[in-house]
């Protein structure tokens, strides 16, 4: 077999120079030649990863022997594993994708990779060779999805087969090289007990929220990016009775509902010709024709908010959504803005009335400087006061006290 040359041809007495492994062009040439040799013997790709790794180590060693170059054993093993990841996985990203403690992977160019581990961002040692290497790996990720990534289509937001979400921006939009954000899919979803143990929420408050879901209260969860909105939505959804039909709408499917009767819908971006887009608003409207008991909108971010509020107001009790906001009160302001984006021409009082009659609870979550996520406040929507949505605080993390004997039917007429 031509690819496997005997190492005995090289004289061990010849002086060897130390290899500079920081040289990206050297690594690129090594990867290219070793991969080409592997491709000469296609039977190797049917081997177990451990067997392939042994053979790749032999090829890497031979590559340097032929050039009279010396590489320490530890570095040789690292290079061989890098090549294995290139052949069978996603290059430098492969060990990060396998690490269960990592929830997010952020790539800011080929030599700047950060991960979120247990709520905190940290830089890792993994590197790409150059911009072309980043693009090659990302395109391999996107290939099964049929998504295009080039100068004419320099942004992609997609869901990988394992449920992870990937967003890519490349030059000319990204000035310092390709930028990639990967939100990993958690195979073992967190539970209500996990949140209580982690001090994200108190036990009495979790009991209140779960009871609100069981009692079919309409809930809006607000918070910043990465604050845990979807995680909390996932957990609360498990208290939906199994006989109820639930329809979910998301941009990239992340929800892991425990309900046995779930219809999952996902938006679709336009193709390279700018056609074929299916928006969240279209899906919400269609969901109402599918005889749902509840509608769950993964995130309210545009004109679909109006249709979601109308669904809550027309018998689809127990529906839920999330929204980006800095507080519970700000979440309502965001809803007002999104209703306006839908082209709804009415007075502020009418818009606020739609919001006040649709929602029962607004739950606000945050992530602190140490990466810990917390439910900060829970507000009950109590109707209108002088055309302004009236809120009553049921819980605030500052005092940890939870209001007792909540009367869901009470509509107070006092300033919020």
UniProtKB/TrEMBL annotation:
Record has Hydrolase as a keyword: yes
Gene3D superfamilies named in the record: 3.30.450.380, P-loop containing nucleotide triphosphate hydrolases
Region (Disordered): 1-22
SUPFAM superfamilies assigned to the protein according to its UniProt record, in alphabetical order: P-loop containing nucleoside triphosphate hydrolases
A Gene Ontology molecular function term of the record: ATP hydrolysis activity
Keywords (A to Z) from UniProt: Hydrolase
Pfam families referenced in this protein's UniProt entry, alphabetically: T2SSE
Top-level lineage group: Bacteria
Domain AAA+ ATPase, first and last residues per copy: 215-382
Alphabetical list of InterPro entries matching this protein: AAA+_ATPase, P-loop_NTPase, T2SS/T4SS_dom, T4SS_GSP_E_ATPase
PANTHER family assigned: TWITCHING MOTILITY PROTEIN PILT, TYPE II_IV SECRETION SYSTEM ATPASE
Family in the record: Belongs to the GSP E family.
Protein name: Type II/IV secretion system ATP hydrolase TadA/VirB11/CpaF, TadA subfamily
Gene name for this UniProt entry: cpaF
């Amino acid at each position: 077999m031509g690819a496997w040359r005997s190492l005995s041809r090289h004289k061990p007495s010849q002086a060897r120079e130390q290899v500079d492994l920081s040289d990206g062009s050297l690594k690129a040439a090594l990867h290219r030649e070793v991969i080409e040799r592997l491709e000469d013997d296609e039977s190797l790709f049917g081997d177990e990863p451990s067997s392939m790794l042994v053979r790749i180590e032999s090829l890497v060693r031979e590559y340097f022997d032929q050039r009279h170059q010396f590489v320490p054993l530890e570095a040789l093993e690292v290079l061989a594993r890098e090549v294995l990841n290139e052949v069978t996985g996603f290059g430098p990203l492969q060990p990060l994708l396998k690490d269960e403690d990592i929830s997010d992977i952020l790539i800011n160019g080929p030599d700047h990779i950060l991960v979120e581990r247990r709520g905190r961002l940290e830089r890792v040692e993994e590197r790409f060779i150059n911009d072309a290497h980043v693009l090659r790996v990302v395109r391999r990720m996107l290939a099964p999805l049929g998504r295009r990534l080039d100068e004419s289509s320099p942004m992609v937001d997609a869901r990988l087969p394992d449920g992870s979400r990937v967003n890519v921006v490349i030059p000319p939009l990204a000035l310092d090289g390709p930028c990639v954000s990967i939100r990993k899919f958690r195979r073992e979803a967190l539970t209500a007990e996990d949140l209580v143990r982690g001090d994200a929420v108190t036990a009495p408050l979790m009991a209140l929220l779960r009871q609100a879901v069981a009692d079919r209260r309409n809930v809006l969860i607000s918070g910043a990016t990465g604050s845990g909105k979807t995680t909390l939505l996932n957990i609360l959804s498990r208290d939906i009775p199994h006989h109820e039909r639930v329809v979910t709408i998301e941009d990239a499917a992340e929800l892991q509902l425990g309900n046995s009767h779930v219809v999952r819908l996902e938006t679709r971006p336009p193709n390279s010709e700018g056609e074929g887009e299916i928006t969240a608003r279209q899906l919400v409207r269609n969901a109402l024709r599918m005889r749902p008991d509840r509608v769950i909108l993964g995130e309210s971010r545009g004109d679909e908010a109006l249709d979601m509020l109308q669904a809550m107001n027309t018998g689809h009790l127990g529906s839920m959504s999330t929204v980006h906001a800095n507080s519970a009160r700000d979440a309502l302001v965001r809803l007002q803005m999104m209703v306006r984006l839908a082209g709804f021409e009415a007075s502020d009082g009418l818009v606020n009335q739609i919001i006040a009659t649709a929602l029962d609870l607004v739950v606000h979550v945050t992530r602190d400087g140490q990466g810990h996520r917390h439910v900060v406040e829970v507000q009950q929507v109590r109707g209108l006061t002088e055309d302004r949505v009236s809120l009553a605080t049921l819980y605030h993390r500052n005092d940890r006290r939870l209001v007792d004997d909540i009367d869901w039917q009470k509509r107070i007429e006092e300033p919020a």
